Amino acid sequence: MEFSQLPEVQDYKYTPLKTDEIRLLKIHPGLDEDVVSCSLEHFPLSSDEVILPEYSALSYAWGSDQTQFPVLMNGRQLTVSANLHAALQEFRASSSWFIPEADRHHKQSYFIWIDALCINQRDPVERAEQVKIMRKIYQQANCLTAWLGPGTSDFEIAASALGRLKTVRKQRSTKQNEAGISGAFSASEEEWIAIKNLLQNQYFSRSWVIQEYGLGGIIPFSDKGLKNRVVFCCGPGRIYDLINIGMEAVSLAVTPDSKAPKYPNPWEGIGNGLQVLIHARTMYQNMLLRHQASTPLDAVPPGFQTTFATLLLSQCNTLSSVPNDKVYSILGFAEQLGGNVVKSYITHELIIDYTATPQEVFASSVRSIALATGRLDILGAAYKETPSLIKSSWTPDWTLKTSLPVYSLRYMLYFRHGLDFDCSPDTKCDVGFAHDLSTLTVSGFVLGKLVHVSSPVPQFSSMAGTLKYRFRAIADLLDEHGNIISDNTWDRISEILLMYLPIRFPMIQHFPAAKANWSEQLRDWICNMKEDELENKFIRKRTSMMDALVQLLDKGLDFNDDTLLLALMNSTSSKPPAGFEDIVVSSNGHIGFTSHRVREGDLLCIILGCGRPMILRPVENHFELISESFVPSVMRGEAIGEWKAGKWDLRDFELY
């Protein structure tokens, strides 16, 4: 029904909310041709006097269709988006959007919380206040309802196939059937395409979904247990365990025998998105279980350490119609996780205001993290590969879709897994933020100017060709600038080649200055790796390959064997960190890897409290942050040691 067909009624006007109060929606029954009729009621979210009724929290995408449809709200008119209108029409026809599978025929009418209707979207103050309690809204919901859009034939095909997969999973978990799942489940090409289309639904790329799915529909019961009440709705269709079943499907899709489309391969991206949601929900579930067991929240297993920065970084490729929501959408989730997460940012240093610009909000995220942690590693995310709405060079643009993880992500996400590189260890950042967050002043020192920046690597028809070209470029660079190469760099030649160059061994052929016993040095380095390095999961996975590599070194190598070169590439970290394609040399002889945006004359700098060297560019009386870099000769704090010994002078850099 078009808006013009709605009988003339007054516009709905929201009654202001009191502190810690929310609105809940009730959808009234009606015929398909009737205008959707709803009502809103106010309830305190936390009260000893008023019991909050059972309700579901809706998780959905607002959608790109800007068409507005009329609804009646407490007898007055209001308009909603096309996607939400379709959900309201479906939900008034059946209450199965709320009831768990075993009770689907229960006829009770339930409340539902929907942000577009339960928050006055025209009031930025109310929106900001509701953002602060959003976590409680989803946490206290009795159910999470995820709306994927109107029903489609693809959904029916996918749901049928995933239903069979769910049955196979249950059978596999019994003692009577312990066989692998891949041999017990098969799907046609049509079914795989339908599964792919379902899992690529825009819902899964929303910024808010990490908080909504991470917190919603997890109900503690008994003394030490949790019950999951999540229902995914697509038109009249329902799936109750889509994320986990979908992840199982992704793992099967990439097997050689599956009929799933593999070129171009969509499954890695789908799997990464689902894994983020699974990880978020698991973190919250573990927190609840630790609470039930009276275990301190900080008592998390060694390994992955979630921080506010890692949550922000996980949002890089999500979508949001409001840029500020890139930050706001994880606030409640971070607060709910507590423990080390809430220690990694300062809430009052964040600008929570929908009238603020993205520049102000994103800059405040840097301030919040830096002042809480004393670290500036987040500056690594400020590198912008494409045009950005953020103009300051030191502020990340969380709206950009990016080819991350670049080294900043790998460093921050996996730091606790053993990537112990830190060019500024045991230091705290010394920062000053302008009142309007237009500038950031940091302390550090200059290692030298860039005197060489390599040309971009040409495109080759084979991987071996690309790798050989890059290696020869390194060899020529070392020959040309050998007179200024620092002692630390020469000492690390074997390590540089092993860990950061795609092809290592032709060095002996193409760089005569390399020592004759380089192979022996390399072998010794592999065999004598520190025990703490061998503890991290990356090295453990490669141990057998490294053993084989040592045997090859003992027997001698055929440097012209492309197959061998590619095998060697896969035996260790195969290339410089992703996104670091350019090789640079500084005036004092440091070799590093960085992004395409650098140029000769830029400064290679160590910033206190920042784990990677930064490339800064002098511009008039200030500096621009160009890129982070990876410089093997200083990545374990060597330059900081020299600074403490008086070699370098500390200075301030005002970043615009």
Describe the structure.
The protein is an alpha+beta fold and 656 residues long. Helix 5 (153-172) packs across helix 6 (189-199), helix 8 crosses helix 9 and helix 19 (518-527) runs antiparallel to helix 21 (537-555). The chain starts with 20 loop residues before the first strand and ends with a strand. Mean pLDDT is 79; it is low at 100-107, 175-179, 297-304, 403-419, 494-518, 529-545 and 557-578.
Characterize this entry briefly.
This protein is of the alpha+beta class.
Comma- or semicolon-separated keywords:
656 residues; alpha+beta; five-stranded mixed beta sheet; single chain; eight-stranded antiparallel beta sheet
Write the layout of secondary structure elements.
Elements: E1 21-27, E2 37-44, E3 55-60, E4 68-73, E5 76-81, H1 82-93, E6 111-113, H2 115-118, H3 124-132, H4 134-139, E7 143-149, H5 153-172, H6 189-199, H7 209-215, E8 218-221, E9 225-228, E10 230-234, E11 237-239, H8 242-253, H9 267-292, H10 308-313, H11 325-337, H12 339-342, H13 358-373, H14 407-414, E12 432-433, E13 440-453, H15 463-481, H16 487-491, H17 493-500, H18 507-510, H19 518-527, H20 531-534, H21 537-555, H22 562-571, E14 582-586, E15 591-594, E16 603-607, E17 614-619, E18 622-628, H23 638-644, E19 651-655
Parallel strand pairs: 2-4, 3-6, 3-7, 7-10
Antiparallel strand pairs: 1-2, 4-5, 8-9, 10-11, 12-13, 13-14, 13-16, 13-19, 14-15, 16-17, 17-18
Helix pairs in contact: 5-6, 7-9, 7-11, 8-9, 19-21
Estimated helix fraction? 25-40%
Low-confidence stretches: 100-107, 175-179, 297-304, 403-419, 494-518, 529-545, 557-578
Oligomer: single chain
What global shape is seen? Answer: globular
Number of helices: 23
| SS content category | alpha+beta
Mean pLDDT over the full residue set: 79
How many strands appear in the DSSP assignment? 19
Q: In percent, how much strand structure appears in the residues? A: 15-25%
Biggest sheet character: 8 strands, antiparallel
Estimated radius of gyration: 28 Å
**Terminus-to-terminus distance:** 52 Å
